[in-house]
Amino acid sequence: MAIQRSGRRSSTASALAASGRRSPSRLGEVVIGICLILGLFTGIMAFLGAVLNFSFVFAGSTGVNPAMILVSGLIILAWRNAGWYGLDRFVLPRLGTPWQRGELFDRRARGTQPMTS
Fold it and tell me: Is residue 117 situated within a structural domain?
């Protein structure tokens, strides 16, 4: 609870407390941050982080957001190599990538044939 010197809550804190809902933007930030820290879906999460940062910049926010857009762009470009150091190393071979099917979706790797009639 945000308390000002006068002892009243600020209007933003009152509005958030009255709504009882959490902001989807906050949830998105947390999910993107956790996935980037763990190295899970690195390229996708870096792209979504850049989209989120663009929305903050276009809304008039100042600070380090333009620099973070540059960093996320570099992570997107380095996605293939970044996958060696996180959970992408284990998850992507199973799920697959746009250029190669993963073990879970490749019938030839499992030895099953498609059903024919």
Answer: no
Give 21 or 51, the one with higher predicted confidence: 51
**Residue 18, domain member (yes or no):** no
In a domain, 11, yes or no: no
Stronger pLDDT, 100 or 2, i.e. the higher one: 100
E strands, 6-48, are none
Q: Which of 32, 58, 59 is nearest to 43 (CA)?
A: 32
Number of domains in the chain: 1
DSSP assignment of 53-116, as one string?
HHHHHHTT--SSHHHHHHHHHHHHHTHHHHTTSSTHHHHHHHHEETTEE-TTT-HHHHTPPPP-
Model confidence over 40-77: pLDDT tens digits? 998 899 899 889 888 888 888 778 888 888 888 888 88
Which residue range is the domain that position 79 belongs to?
Answer: 24-89
Within a domain: 103: no
**Residue 86, amino acid:** G
Is the pLDDT reported for residue 78 higher than 90? Answer: no
